[in-house]
Automatic annotation (TrEMBL):
PANTHER family: LECITHIN-CHOLESTEROL ACYLTRANSFERASE-RELATED. InterPro entries: AB_hydrolase_fold, LACT/PDAT_acylTrfase. It comes from Dichanthelium oligosanthes. This is Lecithin-cholesterol acyltransferase-like 1. The keyword S-adenosyl-L-methionine does not apply. It holds the Pfam family LCAT. Residues 1-24 form the signal peptide. The lineage of its organism: Eukaryota, Viridiplantae, Streptophyta, Embryophyta, Tracheophyta. Transmembrane segments: none annotated. One of its GO terms (biological process) is lipid metabolic process.
Length: 421
C-alpha cells in the first residue's frame, strides 16, 4: 500500500530518486567572516527546490476520507505535518491517507488547482530557513541546508539577515490571466518579506537566491513585480540550477503515471520547453513517430492524458515557459555542466509508454541538459534591458551539487558575498 503514495507523487519525489548519494561532501573552506559587522550585509532571501518546503494540514468536517483511518484528525482543528511526514509515509495504513491529502484537484469553476475539499494546508516557517527540509543528509544537500550553514559561517543570521521563502511546491505560477491563488498569495508574502528584510537592514536591497524549482517562482515573482520595486528592493538575483528548457525526466514521469497530471498544479512546469528545444530535436522516439517540445500536446494525448490536461498545459503552463525572460535586476546564473548522464532522448520504440524507455544521455547537470543552461545566455544575457548578467558553469557538478558540493558551494557563497563589493 505504501507504494501507492509513490505512484501518486512521482513528480514530487523526483529529486530524491535522483540525488540520493553517498556521504555528504565536506563543507567549504571558511569564508572571511564579515558578520562582525552585520550592518555590512545585504539581506539574503532563499527559495529552495522541489519538495524542500514543509506543509502542515488540518482536516475539516468536509473531508471525505478514502478509508476510515484517514478520518482520525478530521474536525479536530489540529495542524499536523503533511509534508514531510516520514512516519506516515512508512505506515502502510496511513500512507494512502497522506497521498489523498497531498494531492490537488483542478476546480473548473474557480479555474484553479486547490486542495481536496476539507483539507487545509499552510507552509511551515515562512520567513525563516529553518522550515526547509533537513531531516537527512541527502535532504540537507538538496534543500539548501549546506548553503545555509555556509552563509551562517560567513556571518548571516536567520530571520535577521537571512530569510527563507518556502512555497507550496505542488503548485506552480500560472500564465497571467489564469487564476492561481497559491502563487498570488506566495507573491504577496514574498513581497512583504523582501520589504521587511530590507527595512530590518537599514533599507539595503536584498539578494534573492533560488535553487531548481524555486527559480520558477522567483523569476515569475520578479517579472511580475513593478520595475521600480525591483530596482529599489533587489540588489541581485542568484539563480542556481534552473534553465528555460525544463528536462526530460518530467516527460518520463508523466508517461509512467499519467493520472498525476491533474493532481498537481506543477506537473507540467518542468516539461521541455519549445523555447529551447526546436522542431529538429526529437525528445521522445517511437517507431511510428517522434515527439519534439512542439509536439507536447500530441505526446500528452498519446500517453493517455485527458483533453482537460492538454488544455491546462496550453493555457496555464506553456505561456509561462515561453515567457521565461530576463528579470532586469543584476543576475548570476549558476549551473552544473559536464555530467554525462543527463537524459536527452527517451526511446519507446514499440510505442508502449507504460514500459520503461531506453534512454539516450547527453551533457548537463544530471537533470538539465547543457542546451537549456546555454539558453540562459541568450534568453537572459542577450536581453538589452538586462544590465548585469553573469553565468557560472561548474564542470562536473550535479543539479543538487551546485548548492552542496564543497567547491561549488564556495563559489555560490562568494557570488552572494561579492555583491557587497
Ligand atoms: C504525521 O501524520 C500522522 C497521520 O496523518 C499524524 O497523526 C501525525 O501527527 C503527523 N506527524 C506530525 C509531526 O505532525
Ligand atoms: C526520430 O528520431 C530519430 C533519432 O533521433 C531519427 O533517427 C528518426 O529518423 C526519427 N524518426 C522519424 C519518424 O522522424
Ligand atoms: C505495455 O507494457 C506493459 C508493461 O510492460 C504491459 O503490461 C502491457 O501489456 C503493454 N501493452 C501493450 C499494448 O503491449
Amino acid at each position: 500500500m505504501a507504494t501507492q503514495l509513490y505512484r501518486l507523487l512521482p513528480l514530487l519525489f523526483l529529486p530524491f530518486i535522483l540525488f540520493r548519494r553517498g556521504a555528504s561532501p565536506p563543507l567549504p573552506r571558511q569564508h572571511a567572516v564579515i558578520g562582525d559587522d552585520p550592518a555590512g550585509l545585504h539581506p539574503v532571501v532563499l527559495l529552495p527546490g522541489n519538495t524542500c518546503s514543509q506543509l502542515e494540514a488540518r482536516l475539516t468536517d468536509a473531508y471525505q476520507p478514502p478509508s476510515p483511518q484517514c478520518a482520525a484528525a478530521k474536525g479536530s482543528g489540529r495542524w499536523f505535518r503533511l509534508w514531510k511526514n516520514s512516519t506516515a509515509m512508512q505506515d502502510p495504513d496511513v500512507a494512502p491517507c497522506l497521498a489523498d491529502q497531498l494531492r490537488l484537484v483542478y476546480d473548473p469553476a474557480a479555474r484553479d488547482f486547490r486542495n481536496v475539499p476539507g483539507v487545509e494546508t499552510r507552509v511551515l516557517g515562512f520567513g525563516s530557513t529553518r522550515g526547509f527540509l533537513a531531516d537527512s543528509p541527502a535532504n540537507k544537500d538538496l534543500c539548501m541546508g549546506r548553503l545555509v550553514e555556509a552563509l551562517e559561517q560567513a556571518g548571516y543570521r536567520d530571520a535577521e539577515t537571512l530569510f527563507g521563502a518556502p512555497f507550496d511546491f505542488r503548485q506552480a505560477p500560472a500564465a497571467p490571466g489564469q487564476p492561481c491563488r497559491a502563487f498570488s498569495q506566495f507573491s504577496r508574502r514574498l513581497r512583504a518579506l523582501v520589504e521587511r528584510a530590507s527595512m530590518k537592514n537599514e533599507g539595503k536591497p536584498v539578494v534573492i537566491v533560488s535553487h531548481s524549482q524555486g527559480g520558477y517562482f522567483a523569476l515569475e515573482f520578479l517579472n511580475r513585480s513593478p520595475l521600480p520595486w525591483r530596482r529599489r528592493y533587489v540588489k541581485h538575483y542568484v539563480m542556481a540550477s534552473t534553465g528555460p528548457g525544463g528536462f526530460l525526466l518530467s516527460m518520463q514521469k508523466l508517461a509512467s503515471n499519467p493520472s498525476a497530471a491533474l493532481s498537481f498544479g506543477s506537473a507540467f512546469t518542468a516539461l521541455p520547453s519549445p523555447k529551447v528545444f526546436g522542431p529538429d530535436a526529437p525528445l521522445v522516439v517511437t517507431r511510428a513517430r517522434n515527439y519534439t517540445a512542439q509536439d507536447m500536446p500530441e505526446f500528452m494525448s498519446a500517453i493517455g492524458l485527458p483533453p482537460l490536461a492538454v488544455t491546462l498545459y496550453e493555457t496555464r503552463a506553456l505561456p509561462v515557459k515561453l515567457n521565461f525572460r530576463a528579470p532586469v535586476v543584476p543576475t548570476t546564473c549558476i549551473n552544473g555542466v559536464g555530467v554525462p548522464m543527463t537524459m536527452k532522448e527517451l526511446v519507446y520504440w514499440d510505442g508502449n509508454f507504460s514500459k520503461a524507455p531506453e534512454v539516450v544521455y547527453g551533457d548537463g547537470d544530471g537533470l538539465i541538459l547543457l542546451a537549456s543552461t546555454l539558453a540562459l545566455d541568450t534568453v537572459i544575457g542577450d536581453d538589452p534591458r538586462q544590465e548585469y548578467y553573469k553565468s557560472i558553469k561548474l564542470a562536473g557538478t550535479s543539479h543538487a551539487g551546485v548548492i552542496s558540493d564543497g567547491a561549488a558551494l564556495e563559489r555560490v557563497v562568494s557570488e552572494i558575498l561579492g555583491v557587497h563589493e
